[in-house]
Amino acid sequence: MMTNLAAGRAADRIMDMAADTAAEAQEMLAITDLKTHFFTQKGVVPAVDGVSIRIPEKQVMGIVGESGCGKSVTAMSILQLVSRPGRIVGGSIMLDGEELVGKSVKEMRNIRGNKVSVIFQEPMTSLNPVYTVGRQVSEAITVHRQVGKQEARQQVVEMFKAVGIPEAERRFNSFPHQLSGGLRQRVMIAMAMVCQPKLMIADEPTTALDVTIEAQILHLMRRLEEKSNTSIMLITHNMGVVAEICDFVYVMYAGKVMEQAPVFELFDHTKHPYTKGLLNSIPKPTEEKQRLYNIKGMVPNLLRLPKGCRFSPRCEYAMPECREREPELYDCGKNHKVRCFLYQKDQGGGADE
Amino acid sequence: MARYIIKRILVAFPVLIAVSLILFVLLNVVPGDPVTVMMREHIKPELIEVFRERMGLNDPILVQFGRYMVNALRGDFGMSYKLQRDVSAMIREAFPHTIKLAIYAALVAWIIGIPAGILSAVKQNTLVDRAFMSFSLMGVSLPVFWAGLLMQYLFAFKLGWLPVTGYYSPRYYILPAIVLGWQSAGTIARLTRSNLLEVMKNDYIRTARAKGLGETVVVVGHALKNAMLPVVTMMAMQVAGLLGGAVMTESIFGIPGLGRITVDAMGTRDMPLLQGSVLFITAIIIIGNMVADLLYAFLDPRIRVE
């Protein structure tokens, strides 16, 4: 069994390396085997447990999963803003060919907000209530660029116009509480885009907004991404949002990537039982009224991960094998990879399974 | 804003009247006859009666109160029984000493309290934090008369660095200001620390960090202003309290301030003086609260009246 496992791993690595050389040129972000663990008094929590993610230039990449599956920790790891007692314990994060893991505090400060920016879930609480929004966005410029106050102000007003804030000049002097949730999120996007970052992380950017505003914000992000050279990493638990704007999707569960595929491939040929569960949980207005599907059980406590596949206790298709050992990420062709024994056989050419 | 201030001032009047009424009734109920206090013990009872009649002490209490209020509105707070001097003049004389002490104490409290609170929060659970917090706990809990006497003993008597009592130059105010300021500093440091720690958990602090700001800018530029809102309010009220006279400190260090004359007036049943000084202190506290509210509104854009 050990040799089998080792062979699988080796194959995986070779595949990864092959993919590396092929796509290296236009890869904006390449996370390889990232491990971010939290060292709590009760034990080590592997919140991100060997995650590899690639984002090509000018693409919107989605990370989907339930709460507590490691999406946000992955994002915060890129910025190295993981709160204590968490810390990156292994892996590599390459941003446009630049290794971020191991960078000094000062070097990271120069990257945050400049090369990698982030939009948070709660526009209500993510802006400082005692300063004007204009000042807060200006700050993102002045900290990274050698520009005067007036110049920064000009750029902010331009950015406000670009993200569709009406009366941009006047809004510069507004306080966060004077703006609606949608406007505040536009301010956050303006703040994130104002330094023309290489990567924008959007951590559930529309979860706190109502549906009509959600669509506007998503289209705005898509438009900005097309106009600039920014890649977007979109974190969400909403499959609808994924379908709306993502090019490629990673499905995460309990700190690991379970399935990854281009967005149409994922929706058309869903493979992993967990992804199927997520998709089935979307209400379908066209179908006759019935109980809304839900995946039984909850995300496991990461301190006590089940043996074998970490989804097996909740999986409808679980086989004895699933409770014994952890599946590899099997390549099914068409850029589609699944961490599930059901697809072990489907593995595309090259693997000696 | 102006309307808000006027409203607050108008509300203050009923409070002042209510305070004087309560005081008036209380002072009439407690035992002890002012005439006896004034004239010493060996006075003929007939004479007491004459004086009582002349001073209007035999009138119904409401009449007395009405008379007092009418005079007070004209700025006449009566004569001190004991010293036969104009009460307003006595307060005017005592207040500058209290102001001086209050300013020095407030300076001590702010200069030590605020940085101590910030440092403790930033270095949470370190030795620095524990040292500052123990020190402020001492400030809050040590009684002034005890800490004051100890300091007098050490710095004035044993080491001879500073004068023991008096009020003749700023040097005399150093010890009382430290004793009094220590107490306020302790409260300020603890409140600053806990508020700052709370504020640092907010989402907008994460946003500030994600912008690429340095930790100092995050703490001083983004967290501090939010954390200081309640602290500033408390500081304004503390200053009002200090201006109301620090009875213990003034007594220990022999400073003839507002607190001292109030306590003396209590001891001698000097009703007009007591009444006058308590009313004055009440007014200061009311103004202090008002300033605190206005400061809060000024600092927090969410409350600012448009």
Can you give a write-up of this model?
The complex is a heterodimer of chains A (353) and B (306). Chain A is α/β, with parallel strands linked by helices and 353 residues long. The two termini of chain A are 12 Å apart. Chain A is globular. In chain A, strands 6-7-8-3-9-10-12-11 form an 8-stranded mixed sheet, with helices on both faces. In chain A, strands 2-1-4-5 form a 4-stranded antiparallel sheet. Chain A is built from 11 helices and 12 strands. In chain A, a hairpin with a 5-residue loop joins strand 11 and strand 12. In chain A, helix 4 packs across helix 5 and helix 5 crosses helix 7 (181-193). In chain A, 33% of the residues lie in helices and 22% in strands. Mean pLDDT of chain A is 84; it is low at 1-6, 17-25 and 349-353. Chain A has helices spanning 2-23, 71-79, 105-111, 133-142, 149-162, 168-171, 181-193, 211-227, 239-245, 263-268, 273-280, and strands at 27-40, 43-56, 60-64, 86-95, 98-99, 116-119, 199-203, 231-236, 248-253, 256-262, 330-331, 337-338. With 306 residues, chain B is an all-alpha fold. Chain B folds into 2 domains: 2-82, no CATH class; 90-299, MetI-like (MetI-like fold, Orthogonal Bundle), CATH 1.10.3720.10. In chain B, 77% of the residues lie in helices and 0% in strands. Chain B has 13 helices and no strands. Chain B has helices spanning 2-29, 34-39, 45-54, 61-73, 87-122, 127-141, 144-158, 170-199, 203-210, 215-243, 247-252, 258-267, 271-299. The radius of gyration of chain B is 24 Å and the shape is flat. In chain B, 35% of the residues are buried. The model of chain B has no long low-confidence stretch (mean pLDDT 85). Chain A binds chain B through residues 79, 81, 109-114, 117-118, 120, 122, 125-131, 136, 139-140, 143-144, 175, 177, 188, 191, and chain B through 202-204, 206-214, 217, 222, 225-226, 229, 299-302.
